[in-house]
Amino acid sequence: MAKQLIDLHYYTLELSIEDGRLGSTEIELCDTEDALLSKDDLLDTIHDWVIEGNWNPRGAIVPVDYILWTNKICEDGCIVDHGTVEIHIEPDHETLIELALFEAGHLYQLKNVLNCEHNWSRENEGGCNENPGVYSTGGTTIIINEHCTKCGLHRAWTRYGSQRNPGQSDLVDYKYEPERGSD
Ligand SMILES: [Zn+2]
Q1: Quick check: 46 and 64 in contact, CB under 8 A?
Q2: CB contact set of 74 (below 8 Å; sequence gap of 6+)
């Protein structure tokens, strides 16, 4: 007799961020013989939901609380799983570059800059000889400065290292310095 390996079940997923309720949705998850439900599918669903939000374009780490309820018709639901997951929101580079060009008054260069095959250089960015362009700002935090030798886009990464505060995401900043594009 063929073994039934996969069984689809409906659940209700409830999400909240720092006690602010995001809402709930019905989801379909596979039960297998080994596990009550597929954790990867659950995490993917939470991730896809959260990244739709309006986040800081510089990047963010968002702690999300979730509760998973059984949702069988004509039965009261009960909690089958709950917990907190950290969703990493990647920086929105395109939006940040657009803002940088706008602030520099060179928005008309946007297409050129976005299409540039950047050649990042840390020359003349300060720092020490072994690590040009790299600064320590105390603790495990470093800032890495670099610019593109072709289009003059300047990029600074802030990396917080191991001593970061909970939920503190690495950040990226852009500036447009067209005079640097002709190194
Ligand atoms: Zn470039």
Answers
A1: yes
A2: none
**In which residue are the tokens 């946007």 written?**
110
Residues within 5 Å of ion ligand 1, judged at the Cβ atom: 116, 118, 148, 150-151
Six token digits for residue 43: 């995490």
pLDDT at 92: 93
pLDDT, one tens digit per residue, over 54-87 is: 888 998 899 999 998 886 544 567 888 899 999 9
- What type of residue sits at position 44? D
Per-domain boundaries in the chain: 9-89, 93-182
Distance 56 CA to ligand 1 centre (A): 23
* Å from CA of 154 to ligand 1 middle: 9
Please tell me the distance between residue 181's alpha carbon and the centre of ligand 1 in angstroms: 8
Question: How many whole angstroms from its chain centre is CA 149?
Answer: 27
